Amino acid sequence: MTNPPPARLLRESRTSLTLIVLHPQLNPHTGFCDEGQLLHLADDAAYIAAMRHALCRRASTGAVSSFKFTDQARINDLVVCHAHVAATGNRSMLVEISLEVFSPPYVESRPLATGDFLYVLMEADYSPLKVPPLEEARKEPHHTTVPGKIPDARERLAAIKTRQAP
After folding, report:
1. Which backbone phi and psi does 97 adopt, to 5 degrees?
2. Any idea what DSSP says for residue 156?
3. Is the Cα dihedral 144, 147, 150, 153 positive or negative?
4. Could you tell me the CA-to-CA distances from 7 to 4, 25, 40, 124 in Å, in that order?
5. CA triple 161-141-89, angle to 5 deg
6. Is the Cβ–Cβ distance between 64 and 119 less than 8 Å?
7. Phi, psi of 49 (to 5 degrees)
8. C-alpha span between 128 and 53 (Å, rounded)
9. 110 partner at 20 to 30 Å CA-CA among 16, 53, 99, 130?
10. If you compute the radius of gyration of the chain from its CA atoms, what whole number of angstroms results?
11. Rounded-to-integer distance, Cα 128 and Cα 160, Å
């Protein structure tokens, strides 16, 4: 049996991706950015955060447990997606996502969406891999203004696992 992986700090998984909304990404019926494009950006950011936390190359999105849009992005808007590992289990981790949008002249942002992604790490043969724990003693506060996200992350991770039990 392999040794358990060392604990990792929350900041070691922090990731930010940026998207400028252009014409091909617009929904032709509404003139706003297609929500599928934004969900794809969020999944990419969550994947990178999971890989940075685990220091491995293979992971899978187990579930998108929540994803809520609070606004829409328009042409020439700048969308920034932030992701970090908020809680870890034995074989899975909860990655928190927040998207914000900047409209020209790109000075002030407004919240665009928030969500939780469940990731499972895998060996080369696709068997589950043990997730490094978060170092509890030195957890930093969440970098966005979403209140109450860090303290209940472990409970949300447990609830997701319970709902998905066969």
Report:
1. -125, 140
2. H
3. negative
4. 9, 39, 29, 22
5. 20
6. no
7. -60, -40
8. 16
9. 53
10. 17
11. 17
pLDDT band, residue 29 (cuts 50/70/90): confident
Q: Which of 62, 98, 63 is nearest to 81 (CA)?
A: 98
Segment 50-89, tens digit of pLDDT: 989 888 778 888 889 899 999 999 888 999 999 999 998 8
Number of helices followed by number of strands (H, E) in the chain = 2, 5
The whole-number pLDDT of residue 145 equals: 40
Residues 6+ apart with CB under 8 A from 58: 121, 122, 123, 124, 126, 129
- Tokens 């990404």 correspond to 25
Q: What is the dihedral of CA 71, 18, 150, 139, to 10 degrees?
A: -160
Q: How far apart are the first and last CA of the chain?
A: 27
Beta-carbon-side half-sphere exposure of residue 143 (alpha carbons within 13 Å): 19
**Which residues are paired to 61 by β-bridges?**
119
* Cβ–Cβ < 8 Å for 79, 19: yes
d(CA 35, CA 118): 20
Centroid of chain to Cα 166: 25
